[in-house]
C-alpha cells in the first residue's frame, strides 16, 4: 500500500477506550483528556483544534471514543515537541500515572484528498459524524472520482447531509496496517445511509469542541467541491 506523504493538510485520527475502568473512571479520563492532553498537543504547535466524539453505540464497539485534530501541516508530527507529548500526569492513578496503563488508543494520520460540502453549510463540526475506513476496489484507483460519481449524488439528496471529507492514510500506529482511505461524513441527524461494502463503519456524536472550532481543514490546499 502506498501511503500519502507527510506534508500538507491532514488530521490526527485517534480512537480509544478505557481498559481498566475500575481504576480510571470515564469522568477522570475525560478530565485528563480535556484539561491535560489536548492542551499538551496544542503546545506542540501541530494543531489548534480538537473535536471529540462518542460512539452512538458505545457498548458495541471496541473503541467508543474518537478525537480528530486538524493539522495545517502533517510534517508537524515529526517534530521533537510532538514526539514528547507527555503520557504521564499526577491526575492519573498510581503508581505509574501512565495513561497507557489504563487506556488504549489507535492513532492514525491522514492527508486530505477532497471535501464535498453542501452549499450554505455552516462552519464548524456537525452533530453526527460517520467514519468509513476502506480499501478501494481494485478497479477504482481514482478514489476521488469513484466517490464523487458513486456516492455524492445519493448524499446530496439527503437533507441532513453537511459534508464529506475524503482522506488517504499517511501513517498509522496500529498493530496491523489500517485501510488506505478514510471518509468523514458529517450530518445533522443520525445515519447517512451510506454503506461501502467491505468497509468499517462507525457513527459518533459530537461530545466537545476545543480550540479553533472553525478551523480550515484544508488551509494549504484548494479544490473544495460544493454541491
Task: Write a brief structural summary.
The protein has an 8-stranded antiparallel beta barrel. By secondary structure, it is α+β, with helices and mostly antiparallel strands.
Explain what this protein looks like in three dimensions.
This protein is of the alpha+beta class. It has one domain (10-211): Alpha-Beta Plaits, CATH 3.30.70.100. Helix content is 15%, strand content 34%. The protein has four helices and nine strands; from the N terminus they run E-H-E-E-H-E-E-H-H-E-E-E-E.
Strand content: 25-35%
Mean pLDDT: 91
CATH architecture: 2-Layer Sandwich
Helix content: 10-25%
Number of domains: 1
Which regions contain 5 or more consecutive residues with pLDDT less than 50? none
Distance between the termini: 31 Å
User: Taking Cα atoms only, what radius of gyration do you get, to the nearest Å?
Assistant: 17 Å
DSSP strand count: 9
- Largest sheet composition: 8 strands, antiparallel, barrel
In CATH, the topology is named: Alpha-Beta Plaits
CATH C-level label: Alpha Beta
Give the strand line-up of the largest sheet: 1-3-2-8-5-7-6-4
Q: How does the helix and strand content classify structurally?
A: alpha+beta
Overall geometric form: globular
Amino acid at each position: 500500500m502506498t501511503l500519502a506523504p507527510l506534508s500538507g493538510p491532514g488530521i490526527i485520527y485517534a480512537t480509544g477506550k478505557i481498559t481498566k475502568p475500575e481504576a480510571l473512571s470515564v469522568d477522570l479520563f475525560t478530565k485528563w483528556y480535556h484539561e491535560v492532553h489536548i492542551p499538551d498537543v496544542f503546545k506542540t504547535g501541530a494543531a489548534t483544534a480538537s473535536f471529540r466524539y462518542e460512539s452512538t453505540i458505545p457498548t458495541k464497539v471496541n473503541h467508543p471514543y474518537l478525537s480528530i485534530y486538524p493539522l495545517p501541516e502533517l510534517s508537524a508530527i515529526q517534530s521533537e515537541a510532538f514526539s514528547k507529548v507527555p503520557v504521564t500526569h499526577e491526575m492519573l492513578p498510581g503508581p505509574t500515572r501512565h495513561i497507557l496503563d489504563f487506556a488504549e488508543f489507535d492513532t492514525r494520520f491522514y492527508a486530505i484528498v477532497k471535501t464535498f460540502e453542501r452549499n450554505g453549510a455552516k462552519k464548524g463540526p456537525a452533530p453526527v459524524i460517520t467514519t468509513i475506513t476502506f480499501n478501494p476496489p481494485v478497479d477504482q484507483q481514482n478514489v476521488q472520482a469513484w466517490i464523487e460519481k458513486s456516492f455524492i449524488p445519493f448524499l446530496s439528496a439527503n437533507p441532513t447531509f453537511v459534508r464529506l471529507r475524503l482522506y488517504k492514510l499517511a501513517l498509522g500506529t496500529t498493530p496491523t496496517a489500517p485501510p488506505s482511505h478514510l471518509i468523514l461524513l458529517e450530518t445533522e441527524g443520525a445515519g447517512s445511509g451510506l454503506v461501502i461494502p467491505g468497509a468499517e463503519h462507525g457513527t459518533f456524536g459530537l461530545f466537545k469542541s476545543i480550540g479553533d472550532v472553525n478551523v480550515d481543514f484544508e488551509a494549504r490546499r484548494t479544490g473544495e467541491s460544493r454541491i
